[in-house]
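fyi for ur records
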Amino acid sequence: GSSLEPEKHSMEPPTMPEEEERPLSVPPSPGGCQLFGYVGIEAVLDQMKIKTMKTGFEFNIMVVGQSGLGKSTMVNTLFKSKVSRKASQPGQEEHIPKTVQLQSITHVIEEKGVKMKLTVTDTPGFGDQINNENCWDPIIKYINEQYERYLREEILITRKRKIPDTRVHGCVWLQRPTGHWLRPLDLEFMRRLSKIVNVVPVIAKADTLTLEERAEFKQRIQEDLKTHAISVYPQEDFDQDPDDRALNNRIREKIPFAVVGADQEHQVNGKRVLGRKTKWGIIEVENPAHCEFPLLRDLLIRSHLQDLKDITHNVHYESYRVRRLNESNRP
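which gave:
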């Protein structure tokens, strides 16, 4: 009996450390593993930032609309620089004919050490003709040509480490501020283009409408898009994260954005602001109380720029790639 007592006492003390260390042996969650100290994984973000600042990135935007809607002014306002025209001589702008002949201009802009190769594609004369039958063909052809160019580089045996990306990441469609329903031409255009590119509808020169007319016009456009099953950006089908879905739902409620473009500065309350001067005052472009241009800029640049590129690559380009490879494999 005395020989068993020491064994009983010797087995009791180890039970205390096991209970103290039990939190360290909690089974990991299905999506990850528990770390016991600092590893430095977060440094990957710094590496990506440094690499992006060195190499820069590309962003390609297309602007579609009739003449006189301020397409060039809107793009200049977006990037606060003269990026929509390439002057042949100092102080002069290149003359672009009013035909559906696409013009692409590339600039390299830099902000706080981050370089961006920006390509702006203008579509002058869209919808200006008496007979506008198939006037979207040059635009669709141009977008598919950029997909084809990227595909040819991608399927090469010996290909470049970084394939030049000329694919259109976003198409801003400008609507006249008529206050009426959309024309069949506009509906057919967006129906065709929304299948191959990210389309962002915009009401141009929204200062010509009252607040009541603007709200009613936006509601009519939303009803037209819903009736004809036209999916504009951001598309509901691609919302995966609940937070992204909540943000995109708020954006979809504002679409189409009612914007006012201006590339001239004016003095307002001692500050220099972008705006348009009228007889009754100055319309401030970046003032949310005057127009929704800040929402458009946030969508295209500050919050969804990378998402525009991801959807272009993973959805629209992938669809084109599958179709082209299937065609090439047919006997």
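The domain at 46-85+96-125+133-261+293-329 is CATH 3.40.50.300 (Rossmann fold). thats all i got for now
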